[in-house]
Each structure stands twice: as structure tokens, then as C-alpha cells.
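Reply to dn_fold:

You asked what the input looked like. This is it:
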Amino acid sequence: MKLTPRTFRIQWDVHAWAGVVASLFLFVIFFCGVFSLFREDLEIWQEPAFHTAPPGEAAPSFDALLAQVAAREKPPLGTHVSFLTHEETRLVTAYLFEPSGVRELWLDPVSGAGHTARSRLASELYWMHFFYRVPWGMELSGLLAVALLVTLVTGLVIHLKDLRRQWWSFRPALKARFSASDAHKVLGVFGLPFTAVIGWSGAVLCLSALLAQGFTATVFRGDAARVAALRGYGQPVREEAKRAAGMLPLDTLVERARTAVPGAAGTPRYVDLQLRGDANAWVGVYFQLEPLGADHYALLDAVSGETLATSASY
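and this is what came back:
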């Protein structure tokens, strides 16, 4: 396919400017992404308390963990509290979601001790992978992923007619300008499938929430629950009732979730309690049934114990 001079110049300019502008930020995203793959391993490595707390023999009591959080932090009614368990240590990470941000507390279910994080290296590298700390950083990362796709498509259009020759052409003996151009083309061709998947998946992950709001307001007539279910994040949409109500014990809710999720056994990977102590409180219990598989979960009303939904229902 031979382009007209004007079309070629347009494609060249778009390719060059999209690549230059996006690459300044994509370098940070790619660099931090390497460390994000090993986030949990880095958390164990960076925290001395983890080194002296080997995995426990018995599953932790989530009621006892919630009591530890309530005693130390005194969270108000309606607080969002989550617990993340680890295979490498008996310590459990508690997350308190507050208007000012997320606070972490590491709890020892055996001794009852609490540890404040000494280092946030692993978490900050993970957040910087998609500029979470920057206002609208997630959406910015999604636009950068789109810019990466634009760069790939325009580069493919520009070089398509010479692609077979440039695929293998690398001449290191030439001047730096020409050898660098050869390297750019060769690496671009070989890396095209991988970078295309990275750009596409990054755009989907980072812009999906923004697009979901648009679909909710237009196509689905304000039904946010339906849109969340279609995205694979089905959750009850509940407003805080601002009325206290007695919740069932968390351990009881975990057992009910284990019964509701086929094949679930052992300690759940994540327990997410939202609107704690409120009449509309609910809990999500997540199990990882296979090492690289998706989470299987059950969502339950924390007051009545009714199963609201499971991963099998979506």
C-alpha cells in the first residue's frame, strides 16, 4: 500500500508526536509495572514484621481482626474496612477506606498485635503504574494507552509496504542515526503483538470506569448495578442508611459465603466489609480457587446474612 505524500506526512507527524508525548509517561508506567508484578513479594521483603510471622496453621478469625481495628482506630459508623490475607505470613493487611485516602494496618491474628507499615515502596510503585496519586491519573493512563495504540497503528501504516525487508534489517556499522532507525523498526515489528496487547488492555482497564458512567447515564438509564455486572464487578448499589443495626459475625458470613461458592475452601483471599454497622451493611468474600484464576466470590447482606449475589450469577 503506497500512501500519497500528504497522507504519509500526516501519518508520520501523528506517529512522531503521539510517540514522543506518550513515551515520556509510558516509561514510568512500564518501569513501575515491572515491580507491580511482584507487589506482594516486595511487601513481605520490605517489612521486618513479616519475617518473624510465618504462615499460621489455622484460619484467622475475621471477627477478632475487626475487633482489633475497632479498638485501635475507632472507625465511625458506615466505615469501609477490608482484610487481605497472605500465603507467606500469618499477618493480615487491614485497609480502612476514608475520604482522605486509604490507611493500612497489619494485624497478627495470633498475638493480637498491630503493626504500622514502615515502608510504602511496593504500594507506591503499584499506584504509580497507573498514576493513581495524580488527579484523574487513571484516566490519564488510559489516554496514554490509546496514544500508544495510535503510535502503533500509524507506524504500521507508514512501514507496511517495506515491512518484510525492515523486519530483519539491522546495520550496526552505519552511522548512529541509521543504525538506531534500524533498531527502532526491528524492535517495533517484533514487539508489535506485545505492545498492542499492552495498549489495548491498559485502555480497557483504565477507561472502563469512565465509559461505564457514560453507558449508565445513556444506554442503561441510570442502572449502575447492571453496568457493574456486565463489567464483571457486580456489587450491590447501596446508600448508607445512617441507622445502626446489629451485624452477623464476620466468621458466620464467611462460612455462608464458602457454602455459596462452589469449590471454595480454606481461608478467603479477601474480605470486604462496606458500611460497617449500618442497616445497609454488606460484605464481599473472595476466594482464589486456582493460582492464576479469577476470584470467585459471594456478596452477602451483613445484617440478615442473605446472599445477594455470587460470581456464578454474573
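The mean pLDDT is 85.
Hope that clears it up.
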